Each structure stands twice: as C-alpha cells, then as structure tokens.
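Quick start: what a row looks like.
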Amino acid sequence: PNLQLIAEKLNSSSIMVWFVLGNQDTVIPPKSVYPLSKKLKNHRIINLEAEHHNLIQKFSEEMRTGNMKIV
C-alpha cells in the first residue's frame, strides 16, 4: 500500500488513528504498523499482552480496568 498517500489523507482530515496491538501477535506484528504510524500527526498506540486471537478480549478487559498504557 502507498503509506505516504494514506498518511496524507488522514493528516489532511486531522483524523486520530488508534493502533491496538498485541505484543505476541504474529498475524499483524506490532512492528508492521510503525512505518505508517511514524507518518501520522495524530495517532496513539496501545500495546497489550496479547496474541492475535485474544486481542479484542484483552482490549475490552483493559478498558474495563483502566490499566491500559497508551503511547
């Protein structure tokens, strides 16, 4: 994908992009989103102790407990 074009479109609209990542995810490894995130003006990264299959469950648990670390 053309990451520069995607970033330009998102930046021109001031869209906040949230990346919710599992540090043990092998389907979408966290490092795969960094090239795009570096080009974005408005983004946040949430790193969770999770694999791909339990990422939604871990995210909802962290939202409920308020223990989520946002970078």
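That is the whole record. Helices lie at 3-12, 34-37, 55-65. The longest helix spans residues 55-65.
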